[in-house]
Design goal:
CATH class: Alpha Beta
Distance between the termini: 8 Å
Radius of gyration: 16 Å
Structural class: alpha/beta
Oligomer: single chain
Number of domains: 1
Bound molecules: adenosine monophosphate
Strand content: 5-15%
Mean pLDDT: 97
Number of helices: 9
Low-confidence stretches: none
Shape: globular
Length: about 190
């Protein structure tokens, strides 16, 4: 079983690479951002709550996010492993994930951060915003706020996972295939 956490700022290519990885390693892809967007579209109570945070590019409160993630994992008791895309994003989420997985005799296998320069990411996101319609991708101030959230709350998780010998980072610049190859080189060890 491989349980992979993909780190990287918005636009770094986590979702794109998850599509490739889930096929190659037979994993389930869970994106907390996608789950929130699904709830917003369906106007659930969770969606209504999450929307105000997402619209500003702020993180949704931890407990709400943790509960949603755990419920999603519980839907797939037969999964061969998971790709966590966009989760954890804070230290309390990371701790909750470890405790939750431990209770199921599972653990995080490896975490990989996709690195790219902020200015390149802003360009990518504004481009994506034109076709995706995502309002958080259409405004540079909101994008920069999401980077700030990442720097302050998510980047420190590097230390959290380094302490467990599970942190790796690769360049997220290059073709989709090149980046996929970099990821595969790390994952093929397991
Ligand atoms: P993403 O699609 O991963 O870029 O996430 C879009 C937005 O969803 C973020 O800017 C947050 O508002 C919210 N979100 C997604 N994942 C999390 C998380 N793990 N913790 C808190 N908020 C999240």
């Amino acid at each position: 079983m491989i349980n992979l956490v993909l780190f990287g700022k918005p636009g770094a290519g986590k979702g794109t690479q998850a599509v490739f990885l889930k096929k190659r390693y037979n994993l389930l892809h869970i994106s907390t951002g996608d789950l929130f967007r699904y709830n917003i579209k369906n106007e659930t109570a969770l969606g209504i709550l999450a929307k105000s945070y997402m619209d500003n590019g702020d993180l949704v409160p931890d407990q709400v996010t943790i509960d949603m993630l755990e419920a999603e994992v519980d839907r797939y008791p037969k999964a061969k492993g998971f790709i966590f895309d966009g989760f954890p994003r804070t230290e309390s989420q990371a701790e909750a994930l470890d405790i939750f997985l431990e209770g199921k005799k599972m653990k995080i296998t490896i975490t990989i951060a996709l690195e790219a320069d902020d200015n390149i990411l802003v360009k990518r996101l504004l481009e994506r915003g034109k076709s995706s319609g995502r309002t958080d991708d259409q405004d540079e101030l909101k994008i920069r706020n999401r980077f700030e959230e990442y720097n302050q709350k998510t980047a420190p998780l590097k230390l959290y996972y380094q302490d467990q010998n599970k942190f790796h980072s690769i360049s997220g610049i290059g073709s989709i295939e090149e980046i996929a190859e970099r990821l595969a080189q790390l994952l093929d060890r397991f």
